[in-house]
Design brief:
This protein is mainly beta. It is built from one helix and five strands, in the order H-E-E-E-E-E. It has one domain. A five-stranded mixed barrel has the order 1-2-3-5-4.
Length: 126
């Protein structure tokens, strides 16, 4: 005669999902690789004006045609969303001095290997 085994080894579906959810939220992922910026990039604190200009460290730069601005998630920001936007950036200029690419940074993000843009601010040092 065969005796049925107790049902102790079969966890319920709710318990299994709770265990998977707890493991997924508790998992600590290592930081991603450091972002590498192209040669010739500069870093600073930027303010986008209403016109086609960008002020970085109190120095005004014209925006070039085909400007591409990426946020912290590497998504493109539309030009209509730029006026009034402020924060730390890394940017590139073309041979005419026009800014053609801008990467917005988090406030606490450290950028190594990218020189700082010229600073002409009298009171606020970035």
């Amino acid at each position: 005669m065969r005796v049925a085994a107790p049902n102790l080894l079969r966890p319920s579906l709710a318990a299994a999902l709770a265990l998977v959810g707890a493991c997924a939220t508790a998992q600590v992922l290592p930081p991603g690789p450091a972002r590498v910026y192209p040669m010739g990039s500069l870093t600073g604190y930027a303010t986008f004006g209403a016109g086609p200009t960008l002020s970085v460290n109190c120095v005004s730069y014209p925006l070039g045609p085909g400007l591409r601005v990426e946020n912290t998630q590497q998504r493109v920001i539309l030009l209509g969303q730029l006026p009034g936007l402020q924060g730390p950036v890394v940017f590139q200029r073309d041979s005419m001095g026009n800014v053609f690419r801008v990467w917005l940074l988090r406030a606490n993000q450290v950028v190594s290997g990218v020189p700082a843009a010229p600073n002409r601010c009298l009171f606020r040092q970035f």
